[in-house]
Amino acid sequence: MNCYDCLTRQEISAAVAVCTRCGAGLCLDHAHVAPQMVHEAAGTGRSTHSHNARRLTCGVCHEAEI
């Protein structure tokens, strides 16, 4: 799979990740990494893990979330 953002610029670069929102392939230059809290059901409430997960998004989705 190739990086979608590179292909729109007539460049070819191997994708190393996939955007968690839109599914576009991303190279290292176009991947935005952000922490994401992990929650799970615990009894009648909700439990939050002490460590954050890693969340990868493309530039378009990253800007839309800010």
UniProtKB/TrEMBL annotation:
This is DUF2180 family protein. It comes from the Bacteria. Pfam families: DUF2180. InterPro entries: UCP037465_Znf.
